[in-house]
Amino acid sequence: MGGRRQRVRVVTMGCSKNRVDSEHLLMQLSAAGYGISPEEEELEDAGVDILIINTCGFILDAKEESVQAILEAVDAKKRGVISRLYVMGCLSQRYRSELPSEIPEVDGWFGAFSIDPLLQELSVRRNPALDTRRWLTTPGHYAYLKISEGCDRQCSYCAIPGIRGKHVSVPQEQLLDEAAALADQGVRELIVIAQDTTFYGLDLYGQRRLGSLLEKLSGIEGIEWIRLLYSYPASFPEDVLEIMASSPKMCRYLDIPLQHSADPVLKAMRRSIDADGTRRLVERIRKAVPDIALRTTMMVGHPGEGEKEFEDLLSFVSEYRFERLGAFAYSEEEGTWGAQNLKDTVPEAVKQERLDELMELQAGISLKYNESRIGSIERVLVDSCDPVENTFSGRTSRESPEVDGEVNVTCNGKLPVPGTFAEVRITGADEYDLTGELL
Known about the structure:
By secondary structure, this protein is of the alpha/beta class. The protein has helices at residues 16-31, 60-78, 90-94, 99-102, 115-121, 160-164, 172-184, 202-205, 210-218, 238-246, 263-269, 275-288, 307-320, 337-341, 348-371; strands spanning 7-12, 35-36, 50-55, 84-89, 108-109, 142-146, 148-149, 168-169, 189-193, 225-228, 250-255, 293-300, 324-329, 377-386, 391-395, 407-410, 421-429, 434-438. The chain has 15 helices and 18 strands. Helix 13 (307-320) runs parallel beside helix 15.
């Protein structure tokens, strides 16, 4: 690549697992001499030659968002803002036979596991020595660590196994090397992710090894917080709770998508756990880690959910009062077990009404939880600062980046540096964010 270095931008759609893939790709491109253009810069002003969109293809809304991003990039190419456009990730993996003819302006389509072919298209030979190195697109003090790929579960509504394939764990030695490198880069918060983190190790070691992995990650110098996301409720490994309760580096935080509480719906969803098992699990988690912040995800409108089942869900959420809860309405996805075997009988308007009612209920729960923290002194990881207003925003160990609220802090003196920790007294709360003052 003689003359001016070509500049490449990778736009990541969808989940944080996609972000990790993008960061591995960017590291290889940077090492090969490409200039890297950050996502947040205006495309017209960034001098981008090559745009790569890492797409999501999970549910209808995500697919539409990815398609819209591709069409906007096509328009940018027509206007001469970029020279080449490539698409990778879940959407192109799922629809690789249809998309090239529908959007012919794209220069190349690559699937979810096609980093090597994409590198070859860009005249780059993958450097194996960089396989555990990343060009971070998050703020430099936190990063995601993807510990496995794919999923062996067969939930009725989920297209991921068809897109990403069977569960494949990343060898522990590779993960520890990657985590240590991230710590050397300045990462202080490590967020452990996978389609199902609890399944980690079964394919490689014949048993679940999530607990031992978390223990070893806790030993890495420089890492101060370890956060666990996307844990499947069935056969949850109990040793993880012991480690979470005892390790000073483990955030007392768990993202565990439960999806529903009523037996008929859980059975139709093929979740491998019933209503009693779900309730016992939540109670065990709260007993083992009393100060834990639980984030869960619920689905409304799945086939089998009548008024009775929806009322059961509302009652369940009211009783267990999750600190964080997200929800979405069922959408029938081609190729899934549900699309092939169940009828989508709940009208879209009813799904939306149920979704609104559930989230209104959760808003009140979240508000009361946040208000209960007023007056407490909490350790906050500083994410960003505003020197004009002399304020900063950050999170406690009970807030995960990008999905949870923030702590917005007013300073009377010198602002702390992003990536450092600060002691903050909580002075106010709404249903999402907290306010505080620096001590």
